[in-house]
From TrEMBL:
Keyword match Nucleotide-binding: yes
Keywords, in A-Z order: Flavoprotein, FMN, NADP, Nucleotide-binding, Oxidoreductase, RNA-binding, tRNA processing, tRNA-binding
Catalytic EC class: oxidoreductase
UniProt entry tagged with the keyword NADP: yes
Residues reported to bind FMN: P18, M19, M20, Q71, K140, H172, N212, G213, G214, G234, R235
Domain (DUS-like FMN-binding) ranges: 16-310
Family to which the UniProt record says this protein belongs: Belongs to the Dus family. DusA subfamily. Belongs to the dus family.
UniProt-recorded name of the protein: tRNA-dihydrouridine(20/20a) synthase
EC identifiers of the protein: 1.3.1.91
Gene: dusA
Amino acid sequence: MSETDPKFPKRYPVSVAPMMDWTDRHFRYFLRLISKHTFLYTEMVHTGAILRGDRHRFLQFHPDEFPLSLQLGGDDPASLAECSKIGEDYGYSEINLNVGCPSDRVREGNFGACLMRTPEKVAELTDAMNASVSIPVTVKCRIGIPGKDRLEDLYRFIECVRQAGVRRFIVHARIAILGGLSPAENREIPPLRYEDVESIKRSFPDLLIEINGGIRTIPQMCERLKTTDGVMIGRAAYETPFLFSKVDSVFFGEKDSPKSRREILFRMGEYVEKQIVEPGIGKPHHALRAVLGLFHGEPGGKRFRRILTERMYSDYSSTLLMEAAEVLSASALDPTSSSVETEFSSPV
Ligand SMILES: Cc1cc2nc3c(=O)[nH]c(=O)nc-3n(C[C@H](O)[C@H](O)[C@H](O)COP(=O)(O)O)c2cc1C
């Protein structure tokens, strides 16, 4: 498969990681307001939820969210193939297989990180997925698991799965400890080994090898991009989302100015009203929680967060974002503004 093949994934220097309970459609819409080009992922969706659950709830998205990858979890080739096709029909840009989740529940279901023990199985799964779609199939994995944590093991894993046609690998640069550590501990305790991912990139120059784990700032992204094809950002995306306002100009050559925080708030207010309140689907807080970190580190940011948290569950009104924003300084709302403004008469 060459780079001109439609099944060869496009290179995106920056992406936001799949994160359960975070990267739902509302959070992705919010991120897309901040960055037009960052590649986005869904939360992991298990094949059973698509084949036997409320499919639409898990798969629907707003057209503005593109480019967007659907992350699947599972261990059955036929189910993964069927779900990949369903994902393609929904319009996703890519399908990604989760080979990195260390949770006990996932391990008991024989998918996620424990699949790193059996590269042939992952090749069988991705082969079936690839055969059912005409969009790229990609893999997110760890650098290893106990007993399979040497660089040679990772090399063998990548080589085996590559044979099944996978051309983009996103590698979380930590091993996953299965049993004994919670998923949160598994994102902190095993040390980062960026050099393993860099070594894989050198060994497989024809593949897109992206790196994930512990990357929180633009300089760190620049550093990691010297030796890999892309950086995937997890927790920093919800803790400090406005970080992404610089990503388009720094990494994607975008010339237009990013939206100010004030415009983002205005647009999220509109989104909550038009996409949730008016059609009567969901609850406003499902989308408003995305906004909580928008003013992280800014004067008044903590109070903004507190007001929103206190009121978004039970005391929502269409003016809530504006009212919460009254505690913020003009510079937090719009760095170019010199006057104090708390009304959103216009989005910019
Ligand atoms: C709340 C949360 C949920 C996550 N859910 C998923 C998931 O659904 N699929 C997945 O592949 N990784 C998941 N991860 C792992 C992240 O994608 C990422 O690999 C990890 O957070 C390391 O990146 P970071 O150091 O930039 O946060 C999750 C992480 C967090 C914090």
